[in-house]
Amino acid sequence: xxxxxxxxxxxxxxxxxxxxxxxxxxxxxxxxxxxxxxxxxxxxxxxxxxxxxxxxxxxxxxxxxxxxxxxxxxxxxxxxxxxxxxxxxxxxxxxxxxxxxxxxxxxxxxxxxxxxxxxxxxxxxxxxxxxxxxxxxxxxxxxxxxxxxxxxxxxxxxxxxxxxxxxxxxxxxxxxxxxxxxxxxxxxxxxxxxxxxxxxxxxxxxxxxxxxxxxxxxxxxxxxxxxxxxxxxxx
Length: 235
Prior knowledge:
Elements: E1 5-9, H1 13-25, E2 29-33, H2 36-46, E3 50-54, H3 62-71, E4 80-84, H4 89-97, E5 102-105, H5 110-125, E6 135-138, E7 141-144, E8 149-152, E9 155-157, H6 161-172, H7 180-188, H8 197-210, E10 220-223, E11 227-230
Parallel strand pairs: 1-2, 1-3, 3-4, 4-5
Antiparallel strand pairs: 6-7, 7-8, 8-9, 10-11
């Protein structure tokens, strides 16, 4: 199996060294950056399989680096775990809203970080079954399941790996309503520490990316009091 490469970006060098040492012991290749500008440069140069981003860094904040990664088509699906010394729920929600796949507050247990890395990488590697269709289409929305790319009316849209999996799952079951808990089960799987509110955050981000008018969506619909569904193709 190909060795996975992880970029650690944090201005606290002792924390970077500690994480790097333990990840290398787990068999990962590690590259590091100590400010946001260097982190963004390393994403382009090193093409990591996952990025660990500190929220507050010099030059460019981790939050802004996350936004930059998500806006760029070549890195939009790159898995991101955010680290921060802040424990406020608002910061966690902001981290998820800009595109982080997971979020961990300092101080943290290294075993928990490693478990989350494995979970995020495992989800990012999932691909459609061989007998599944190669693409899904509905009313101008095209989702290529082989290249993990989506377009709306021919224009590419940048989706995180989690947003892509959420869209893919809903499109495979048009018209069927899923509660937040059911979506957590199907899209997040066995990941711990995930709250139902996380689904709302990702639905909002997904709509912002694909809907011509996110206030009046035509693809991902809310069923009040129950959950969400993809538009019924026969409606």
